[in-house]
Amino acid sequence: MIAFEQVSKCYTSGQEALSDVSFSIKTGEMAFVTGHSGAGKSTLLKLMMLIERPTKGHILINDVTVDGFSHRQIPLLRRKFGIVHQNHQLLSDRSVFDNVALPLIIAGFAPRDVGRRVRGALDKVNLLGKEKQLPEMLSGGEQQRVGIARAVVNKPPFLIADEPTGNLDPELSAQIMQIFKDFNDFGVTVLVATHDLALLARMPHRSLTLREGKLIGSGLPSSSVHHPSAQPRDPHQPSVQANI
Amino acid sequence: MKPSAQAQSDTAQSGFMAWQQHHRSVAIESLVRLAKHPLSSFVTMLVLAIGITLPSSLNLVVRNLSHLLGPDSSTLQMSLYLSATVSASEAQKLASQLQGWPEINQAVYVSPNEAKQAFEQREGFEGLIDSLPTNPLPGLITLSIKSATLSAEQADKIETKALQLDGVANVKMDLQWFQKISAVVVLLNQLAAGLAILLATGVMLVVGNTIKLAIDNRREEIIVIKLIGATNAFIRRPFLYLGLWLGLGAALLAVLLSKISECALTYAVSSVIDAYGANITLLTLGLNDGLLLLACGASLGLAGAWLAANHHIRSLEPQ
Fold first, then answer.
1. How distant is the Cα of A76 from the closest Cα of chain B, in angstroms?
2. Engineering a disulfide at A154: which of A103, A145, B252, B266 sits with its beta carbon 3.0 to 4.6 angstroms away?
3. A208 — phi, psi (to 5°)?
4. Could you count the other beta carbons within 10 Å of the beta carbon of residue B28?
5. Do B234 and A76 touch (CB under 8 A)?
6. Which ipTM did the prediction report?
7. Hey, which residues does A160 pair with through a beta bridge?
């Protein structure tokens, strides 16, 4: 469960990025955060990961108030989240395998478990054959899938994605979204920040809409009438097998 | 064992194994990173090595000085001249009493007759005493003093204590040479210690700066793994190993440098020694000294790395 209680965030520059935002995402739910750039999506995710701290209000993760966490507690909180970034944030000098293994090594998994889990995660995103390659040898979509494999390899209860489809064409975006949906089907709480309204329209999930730092809506996406660009989901689009 | 307890201990064991494995791989990785830039690594280590060699060489010079010029048990002697009224058996008793003092190595009674014999053995003095009506030489107790623990004040104290003894007429000891040498040795030792502190600080700063550069080079990586939930200790680890390897490498180089300069010095000194026909051996850097240097180098490297890594890693936060 992720809950924001009247959270405001004011940067030292005086800019108010979020004001009085309250919402709650249930365990096992999949939800979106939308809004134009500068609406506060990134701030919302940063507050969740304690990259930033709220100026007012409280943030609860699984019923624990985390906004007062000390520096020592932050790493353990972050291990509960799998994070997918728009620009992948992969380490360019390490192989795909080593990149995906990072969260396990950080969490202190035994060497024999690391190999098994990394291959499991790469299998879920259909990249099993590429574990020895360097990230830059892969396409953008493949790199994003490596990022997803890294985010889920230690089976975190929460999966957070910040504009995961920002640099991808619509078909690849749909693939990536399908992967998220598959994880959600297996009980992972998924939160995706995106401004890709076409993509949203196809997914029957709640979306939190931000405008200038205020939460202006938190319901199901409005119908495709408002978003004429939205396409019905292509039944032939490749779907990724997920076996968690 | 209950199944849950068994599972718990398994987890703990595999956690420890993972920790060990991580240390091993990080240690090797840091070494490989150093080896990838052999020239700059070598230059850094050389700078550090010079910083380590200077105070350690000065220390060796001081030790040689005090070894060569300082008192040893044969030269640091005190003579107690006894009054004529003291009989041989009383003098023997006095000698054994003195032998019991903690500062005294050995107390030997020399009777007037023995003194006379020793005197007459000297060239040109044969039969000199026999020509006198009585033997003018007094009985004598020679004390050899434990020099290792002796300071000038202690020597004075022994002198006054000995003078208060019954039957002791006079005490003679030549301390001036000893006092001068020990003052010089103390001064040089202080200089070496001061230099050591200064250069140790320098070594830590150089290591710290190298670590700072290494951290700057891996900025992006550090931020990414902080986001994934790495603790500062985890992020610090490779840099600590880097500091450790730098310090150890520098200390090895320092031992090598010391040995080279030692060889050159021994060669130069041996010609002087040969010319004087003296039988002198120089103290050299031994195995223990070498190990001590390695330990110092490693701990300075580690300490410098820790200070720098702690500071710079904390300041790197995901934005």
1. 6
2. A103
3. -95, 120
4. 11
5. no
6. 0.82
7. A83, A191
Name A5's bridge partners: A58
Pick the residue from chain B with its C-alpha nearest to A93. B221
Say if the Cβ atoms of B227 and A89 lie within 8 Å.
yes
Two structure tokens written together for B120: 């007459």
The sign of the dihedral angle between the CA atoms of B46, B52, B55, B60 is negative
Contact (CB, 8 A) for A199 and A192: no
Q: Which residues of A105-124 are buried (b: 16+ CB within 10 A; e: fewer)?
A: bbbbbbbeebeebbbbbbeb
B72: closest CA among B150, B17, B184? B150
Q: Model pTM?
A: 0.74
A244 at interface of B, judged by CB pairs closer than 8 A: no
Q: Which of B17, B230, B317 is facing A75, going by the closest CB pair?
A: B230
* pLDDT, tens digit, 9 for 90 and up, residues B234-261: 999 999 999 999 999 999 999 999 999 8
Q: Which tokens sit at B16?
A: 């420890």
CA distance B57 to chain A (A): 43
Rounded-to-integer distance, Cα B41 and Cα A7, Å: 50
**Cβ atoms A59, A65 nearer than 8 A:** yes
Q: Do A110 and B19 touch (CB under 8 A)?
A: no
- Cα–Cα dist B95/B104, whole Å: 11
Cα angle: A23, vertex A29, A32; to 5 degrees? 60
Q: Which amino acid is at A175?
A: Q
Q: What is the Cα–Cα distance from A97 to A115, expressed in whole angstroms?
A: 8
Give residue for tokens 């103390």.
B186
Residues whose CB is less than 8 angstroms from the CB of residue A221 and which lie 6 or more positions away in sequence, other chains included: A32, A197, A200, A201, A203, A204, A205, A207
Mean pLDDT over the full length of chain B: 84
Structure tokens at B59: 């220390």
Q: Nearest-5° angle of CA B219, CA B49, CA B271?
A: 170
| pLDDT tens digits along B81-90 | 888 888 888 8
User: Which segments of chain A have a pLDDT < 70?
Assistant: 220-244
Cα Rg, chain A, nearest whole Å: 18
Per-residue pLDDT, B239: 96
Q: Do B17 and A78 touch (CB under 8 A)?
A: no
Segment B3-40, tens digit of pLDDT: 555 656 666 677 788 788 889 989 999 999 999 999 99
Rounded to the nearest angstrom, the gap between the alpha carbon of residue A114 and the centroid of all alpha carbons in its chain is: 22
Selecting from A49, A75, A91 the residue whose C-beta is nearest the C-beta of B231 gives: A75
Taking CA atoms, what residue in B is nearest to A83? B228
Residue B175 near residue B84, CB atoms below 8 Å: no
Contacts of B165 (CB under 8 A, 6+ apart): B80, B94, B97, B98
- Which amino acid, one-letter code, is at B226? K
For residue B37 the two structure tokens come to: 């830039």
pLDDT-derived band at B296 (thresholds 50, 70, 90) equals very high
Q: Residue B128: CB partners within 8 Å, gap ≥ 6?
A: B119, B120
Burial level of A61, CB count in 10 A (0-12/13-18/19+)? buried
Alpha carbon distance A85, B196 (integer Å): 50
When pLDDT is averaged across residues B214-226 and rounded to a whole number, the result is 92
